[in-house]
Amino acid sequence: MTTLTLPGRGDAVPAPASRLRRELRAVHALVHRDLLRLARQRVPTALMLLHPVLYLFILGGGLAALIPAGSLGVGYRTYLFPGMLMMTVQTPAIMVGIRLITDRQSGYLRELLMAPVGRTTLLLGSCAGGTLVATVQGAVLLALAGTVGLPYDPVLLALLLGGMVLASFTLTALSLALAVGLRSPETFHTLLGLVMMPLLFLSGGFFPLASLPGWAQTLTAVNPLAYAVDILRRSIALRVPGQAPGTTVAWAGHQPPLLLEAALLLTAGALALLWASRRFGRPE
C-alpha cells in the first residue's frame, strides 16, 4: 500500500489516493451485497412487484370505467402508472432502513464498523445499494408501459428511469435518516406507517391533487413523493403527443419547472443523507 511519512515523525499514513480506493471498494462491496440479496431472494422480490401490478390492472381497470379520461387528461391506467412506479421503488428503498436496524441488532453492523473505512462510507454504500435495487425493480415494472398505452420510446423510458433513480435515492436516504437513530424494527414500522401512507396518499399517484381540500394541497408542496410522481407524469407528457400530465404540484396556482422539481427532490435526499451521516458518525 502506498504510504506517506509525515515530516519529523516515523509514523506512516495511507496516501490519499490509496484511502480513496479503499473507501470506494467498501461502497462497491455493500452495493454488491445488495445485488446478491436481490438475486437470491426471488420470491420476496416477485411478491413486491406483484403488489403494484395488481393495483395497476385491478384497481386501474375497475376505476377506468368510472373516471372519464377528460377529467385527467389521460386514461386512468396511464394516469396511475407513475404512481405504481413510485410504489415499486418505495418498498426496496424502505427495506434499507429496516436492514440497518436488524444489522445493528444482530451484531453485523458492529463488524462492519471495524473495517478501516469511514462510517459515512458505509452509509453511502447502503444508500447506493438501496437506490440501485429499487431502480432495478422499478425498471421491471417499466416493461409494462405498453399495456397502459405508452410507447416504448427510448427517450421516454430513459426519462422515466432517470426519475426513478432520483426517487429511489431520495426515498432510500429518507429511510436511512429515519432508521439511523432507532433500535427496534417495530418502532421503525410504526413510524413508517404514520409517515409513508400520508405521503403516498398526498402524492397524486392515485387521484388528481386538485381534488384535495386546500390544507391537503398545501401539504403536497412539501411532499417529496408528490414531486417524484409529478416528474414521472410530466416526463410522459413531454414525449407522448396529446397526453396531458393531469393535475400536478402547484405553488400558489403556478406549476414549478420540471428541472426545479428534480433539483428539490435531489436536495431533499442529499440533506436527509447528510443528517443520517452525522447521526451515524456518532460512536455506538
Total beta-strand segments = 2
**Which geometry do the CA atoms define?**
globular
The portion of residues assigned to helices is over 70%
Query: Whole-number radius of gyration?
Result: 21 Å
H-E order: EEHHHHHHHHHHH
Structural descriptors:
single chain, 284 residues, mainly alpha, two-stranded antiparallel ribbon, 11 helices, 2 strands, disordered N terminus
Structure overview:
α2 crosses α6 and α7 packs parallel to α11. The protein is globular and about 60 Å long. It has a two-stranded antiparallel sheet with strand order 1-2. The N terminus is likely disordered. The chain is an all-alpha fold and 284 residues long. It starts with a strand and ends with a helix. It has 11 helices and 2 strands; from the N terminus they run ββααααααααααα.
State the gist of this model.
By secondary structure, the chain is mainly α. The protein has helices spanning 16-40, 42-64, 69-72, 76-106, 108-113, 119-142, 154-179, 185-201, 214-220, 224-239, 258-280; strands at 3-5, 12-14.
Write the layout of secondary structure elements.
Blueprint: E1 3-5, E2 12-14, H1 16-40, H2 42-64, H3 69-72, H4 76-106, H5 108-113, H6 119-142, H7 154-179, H8 185-201, H9 214-220, H10 224-239, H11 258-280
Antiparallel strand pairs: 1-2
